[in-house]
Amino acid sequence: MPAITYVLPDGTEKTIDVPIGMSIMDGSVRNNLPGIVAECGGGCSCATCHVHVDAQTRALFDEPAGEETDLLEFLDGADGDSRLSCQLIVTGECEGIRINVVDSSA
């Protein structure tokens, strides 16, 4: 299982092992990490799992689909590093990546 570091909204970091095939969102929710609300449960319909990922990390994941792009377009605080964590599926190459969690509960 790749170790993923979540940089939480308060600046603290939590590293957890996330199984291959699970989403970054599921890894956070299953470990009760703050920031990712995931109201839709991973259906790419609410944008409450907003995270920021750097360019090197983005390259490890598929390009965003139209639904994700549409949601991010209207999301406050979204920028070029924004992704929805429900759409980021962990692979073996994800070992050691850092995910910056945006506080979706605010």
Automatic annotation (TrEMBL):
<dbReference type="Pfam" id="PF00111">
    <property type="entry name" value="Fer2"/>
</dbReference>
<dbReference type="InterPro" id="IPR012675">
    <property type="entry name" value="Beta-grasp_dom_sf"/>
</dbReference>
<dbReference type="InterPro" id="IPR001055">
    <property type="entry name" value="Adrenodoxin-like"/>
</dbReference>
<protein>
    <submittedName>
        <fullName>2Fe-2S ferredoxin</fullName>
    </submittedName>
</protein>
<keyword id="KW-0479">Metal-binding</keyword>
<keyword id="KW-0411">Iron-sulfur</keyword>
<dbReference type="GO" id="GO:0009055">
    <property type="term" value="F:electron transfer activity"/>
</dbReference>
<feature type="domain" description="2Fe-2S ferredoxin-type">
    <location>
        <begin position="2"/>
        <end position="105"/>
    </location>
</feature>
<dbReference type="GO" id="GO:0051537">
    <property type="term" value="F:2 iron, 2 sulfur cluster binding"/>
</dbReference>
<keyword id="KW-0001">2Fe-2S</keyword>
<comment type="similarity">
    <text>Belongs to the adrenodoxin/putidaredoxin family.</text>
</comment>
<dbReference type="InterPro" id="IPR001041">
    <property type="entry name" value="2Fe-2S_ferredoxin-type"/>
</dbReference>
<dbReference type="GO" id="GO:0140647">
    <property type="term" value="P:P450-containing electron transport chain"/>
</dbReference>
<keyword id="KW-0408">Iron</keyword>
<dbReference type="GO" id="GO:0046872">
    <property type="term" value="F:metal ion binding"/>
</dbReference>
<dbReference type="InterPro" id="IPR036010">
    <property type="entry name" value="2Fe-2S_ferredoxin-like_sf"/>
</dbReference>
